[in-house]
């Protein structure tokens, strides 16, 4: 073997944004030849390289067995290049260099699911973002090197499907029972977007004619039995293609678009040019086997990966520090798509709930970083809620501020300027600025510093002068690594309501303009400021940050009555929900009495159920124990939070007792015309069931059991199963066994079976041992690990007791087998330092003890950061 022993002692493996340098060589074209065998894969590559700056010719490569290398037709001897575990360097290379290499790789033993790997006995797939391509062949594997790819794929005929990016230009026999295909991708792309697939799969076909008249063949590849579950994804794909034409003027640019489903995938899905690879959980959707939430997720992930074709692929990132350029923008785009798909308010509620439950805690703890980080050890650790969700919020703020038309002028300018390029966040903001005519430069501050700003606001009404004054102040918690925190631009969407009638006040437009309030949005961009509304004839109720117009923690001294008022009268559905959430935060975290909230629910719910069942189902949201815990920075006692939350749920159940049963019996999803409202009705029915069951009502168990038996819909079936299992109903055991029998051959449904049991509030170490020892538990399949670990994590009391060992053991095991997933799962323990003693010290000791036992950059970096508080 030609892999050099690792002589390098990596003192500091940190990479810094400030050290960015252009590559010394570009690649005009690459010809790849991938020949798969049972025990190895041979990869031959021919790179036409050209110098663009001084320096060595550097090819990155990891775990590659080098068989030969030639430059401009001459084979190099070992003295003519240097090779270590990360790269191959040719000093003094000619300015025009055709590099030919032959390497052997081992996808059949690749458990890290990065590079080319065997996903099952009859499927090879690739995952190359961010740095997987270097595990396939030697290459300048960085996103600012764009090239034209021609790919030959060869394998045994037991794998009938041979795919790569672009157009199929040749296919034929390769002898000895083997065959091959050749694909050419006409658009230049970085190596992270390369994909190839070798397997035995069935396909669903369709087509779409673009606004430019291009007839695009659409294909979704999956196991034969799963093909009927591809319909929703296929329709979502066509819908996405049309949506991007209508909203961003972007049409698809190739004659085919392929999606391949695999159950062995670290992430949700990947946007490889013309050949997306998807986790089955993000492409297969079917009422019978997957939940409504999963169906919504499939549609949004399909849209997300499709939208990357322009925001990510045609225009890509200069370097991985710019990740939020493509991810933040594409998440904002997929969120907007989903807002059009269901109700805009409910989509916003769900997106903000994710932001607050994941990004806010991340940003207030040891893993906090700017949306555009300035250093990293392992880039895989930076596919975070901050890069994605906060990144999306920054784009949303700019779009809110500009309004639809100007934002479109800005994005048009971005596509015009940068098509075919690898660019930075600065380029994006500059293009938006130029296209819209509005200077957005100050939004760069958001990209460059960490932390969730606190927005303090105060309101004062002066009846004598009929003026209402609002003052604002912003601040950020000091951060040791970022001493120069600056004020950020905060768009504050607001409205005033008549406290007596509930009507929204129309405000004098000229006065608004003087105040800098335009279209109901005030841009607050200093440390402190004050605005004044005149001609306000009655004492108003102000609604701030409508639709969550900025990712900040709002601190406004609402009275509980004002919040109850907003629950009932605010016309922005998001702020209606937010008012309820703020009341609940006060009840659960600040010991407020619940009466006002209960009364407000009684005033709001009956009407809302009729008008908008989907929104009504969200109004019942009670913040999770995990979210509540994340709002506590010290002396956190999970059991205390659990107790308070349970007490409130019981109170709610008692107050809504008879209402629940009536509503349950009346609600019928089949009377709804739209899927989204039917989904709302199903959610409501499950809420009603669980409230009835909370009081130990045996009739509730019978109803749940009936619902379970009679339905063909997974949301109904699972909702009922949950109620039975979590309340230890007499029917629980039998129903779990029935579920297993029905769905044991359906991996995604079986994931739910594992999840329900792991998420039992009274799960114990024994429950966990039973599940992880089950014959269907598989440490090689991330989805299965996540179903159990995610279920467990639904109850912080369990996470912080027997769960600690579970997560530590997983991190230890996955450190070598699959460090990407290991590093992510370990983050379940990242808020250890907020725990009350003695738990705090106990978990800390466990984490310290793990340190010398892990080797991967992924897990070590995460662990080091976690302990650095
Ligand atoms: N480009 C990512 C996939 C990816 C993530 C590859 C991390 C390598 C490392 C893809 O576009 C993506 O963002 N997928 C998300 C789902 C999306 C809807 C936010 C995912 O996989 O979770
Ligand atoms: Zn993405």
TrEMBL record:
Residues 37-193 form the Aminopeptidase N-like N-terminal domain. Pfam families: DUF3458, DUF3458_C, Peptidase_M1, Peptidase_M1_N. Residues 560-867 form the Peptidase M1 alanyl aminopeptidase C-terminal domain. GO terms for molecular function: alanyl aminopeptidase activity. Keywords: Aminopeptidase, Hydrolase, Metal-binding, Metalloprotease, Protease, Zinc. Residues 233-444 form the Peptidase M1 membrane alanine aminopeptidase domain. This is Aminopeptidase N. It comes from Acinetobacter entericus. The lineage of its organism: Bacteria, Pseudomonadati, Pseudomonadota, Gammaproteobacteria, Moraxellales.
